[in-house]
Write a structure and sequence with these properties.
By secondary structure, the chain is mostly helical. 48% of the residues lie in helices and 6% in strands. Strands 3-2-1-4-5 form a five-stranded parallel β-sheet, sandwiched between helices. Strand 2, helix 3 and strand 3 form a beta-alpha-beta unit. The longest helix is centred in the middle third of the chain and has 20 residues. Bound molecules: flavin-adenine dinucleotide.
């Protein structure tokens, strides 16, 4: 009997292939769905057909924003190249997803489909529908856990309820079963004798038509290879001082892995196992990684929270939508340098430092009393790391209406925040060259805004 790989090369493999459906988790390293598909292919002496299906309407109302679509375009190109390096391909199709998977299965004779699951409410519903439709046609469907360390629903308090306080969640994670060890990328992926037709990535029309993405191109290199280089660079330079430097937007003190993690270009289990116990300085960083778990678990248990405050009393908060102030905020013209520098960094690079995100978000919901949902929607469109779980948690935290949130009455003074976290002014000068000359006056005076926000809180409480 010839060895499997020889039989593959000789075209002797059967045609009961498996489809590997990529949604996020755009990587070959530690990809559980890929491993399951390979195991199945080996058992049946058949091939694996990787596929990506573009169906943004199925993610509504949170279809990928402009910056995410830009990233996705680049990331798909990187994945395609990586697959070609493994004698495979990436088949690109336009949705709807269930129909497209069924059509591909019929075209290729695939009898099983594997994918890594997602946890956003619309994606959970979609995957349920896909499983149902495939089962009707007798096609085996299996979703695998590839995006998180701990499955939502497995980390619960003593009463079997979700945690709402981060520190308790963190402790429960540490006490839970250690996440599985990551598995290496395979050397080869068995290919079918004939490939199904594929669209070109450019036909998906993901790249913006306006001349806006120049800063994104300058700042980022999407894809698995650069994600892992980014992790190496961070471990070699900034991890040691992460606990002290992570709050400084004027330093390169954080990992900037957030878009890579969102798109699953790097395995969170790989990060976990590389850092756990290996570096004494790793714990503060792993805590942030577990904030990502916390936000995903919260979204799973409270799927209404991208629109609704977790704390229901905030439904009665007297927000005021003022489009002039909102535009000033989006354009970085509020007259508060730290807020404006952050908003301009966001527009130019698709990313903003966490400390500045907190200050800019707080400014919108407290100084301007604009609903947090409007800010979340702007971030959703402009962040390359836009992530429904993390964005929802970040905005509800800032607005005081979420789990383990900053109390609403604690109102950041943006100027004091600037003095503390950008003491030499390097960060604000980088983004606001006109700071010393032609810079706008504050859209609202801090003392007045603070009192108005506290009055609004009192009105919500009926005082
Ligand atoms: P690092 O400090 O290097 O942290 C490593 C990783 O841990 C991050 O890549 C991220 O995956 C995770 N992480 C860090 N901080 C948080 C946090 N507070 N909550 C959840 N996960 C965290 N993060 C997103 O990934 N997508 C978003 O859409 C998003 N929106 C936000 C909105 C607001 C208003 C706020 C206040 C925060 C938001 N965050 C979001 C969280 C955080 O700002 C970013 O994850 C972080 O700045 C990314 O930079 P980094 O990769 O260098 O982080």
């Amino acid at each position: 009997m010839r060895h499997y790989s020889e039989r593959m090369e000789a075209g002797l493999v059967s045609d009961a292939h498996s489809l590997l459906w990529f949604s996020l988790d755009l990587r070959l390293d530690d990809n559980p769905a890929l491993h399951r598909a390979l195991a199945e292919a080996k058992r049946g002496e058949s091939a694996v057909i990787p596929v990506f299906i573009w169906a943004p309407e199925e993610e509504a109302p949170w279809q990928p924003g402009a910056a995410s679509r830009w990233w996705l375009h680049q990331s798909l190109k990187a994945l395609q190249a990586a697959l070609e390096g493994h004698s495979s391909r990436l088949i690109i199709r336009r949705g709807p997803t269930a129909e497209t998977l069924l059509a591909l299965a019929a075209e290729s004779g695939a009898k099983s489909i594997f994918w890594n699951r997602r946890y956003e409410p619309a994606m959970i519903a979609r995957e349920g529908e896909v499983k149902r439709r495939l089962a009707e046609r007798g096609i085996a469907a299996e979703s695998c856990p590839g995006n998180l360390l701990f499955e939502p629903g497995t980390i619960l308090n003593a009463n079997g309820k979700p945690f709402q306080v981060f520190t308790a969640f963190w402790r429960a994670c540490l006490a839970a079963a250690t996440p599985a060890q990551p598995s290496a990328a395979p050397e080869r992926i068995p290919a079918p004798a004939t490939w199904p037709q594929s669209a070109a990535i450019s036909e998906l029309d993901l790249e913006p038509r306006i001349d806006w993405a120049g800063g994104l191109h300058e700042t980022w290199k999407p894809g698995e290879r650069s994600a892992s280089a980014q992790l190496r660079a961070f471990l070699g330079s900034a991890l040691e001082s992460y606990s002290t430097d992570r709050d400084r937007p004027d330093y390169r003190g954080t990992s900037r892995l957030s878009p890579h993690l969102h798109f699953g270009e790097i395995s969170v289990r790989r990060i976990w196992h590389e850092l756990c116990g290996a570096h004494p300085a790793a714990e503060p960083y792993l805590r942030q990684i577990v904030w990502r778990e916390f936000s995903n678990h919260l979204l799973f248990h409270y799927p209404q929270t991208p629109q609704e405050p977790l704390r229901p009393e905030f439904r009665a908060f007297p927000w005021r939508m003022d489009s002039g102030s909102f535009d000033a905020w989006t354009q970085g013209r509020t007259g508060y340098p730290l807020v404006d520098a952050g908003m301009r960094e966001l527009w130019h690079t698709g990313w903003m430092h966490n400390r500045v995100r907190m200050v800019a978000a707080s400014f919108l919901v407290k100084h301007l009393l604009i609903p947090w949902q409007a800010g979340a929607a702007w971030f959703w469109d402009t962040l390359v790391d836009a992530d429904l779980a993390n964005n929802t948690l970040g905005w509800q935290w800032s607005a005081g209406c979420g789990a383990d949130a900053a109390p609403y009455f604690r109102i950041f003074n943006p100027e004091l925040q600037r003095q503390r976290f950008d003491p030499d002014g390097d960060y604000v000068r980088r983004w606001i060259p006109e700071l010393e000359s032609d810079y706008p006056r504050p859209v609202v005076e801090h003392g007045f805004a603070r009192k108005r926000a506290l009055d609004a809180l009192a009105a919500m409480r009926g005082q």
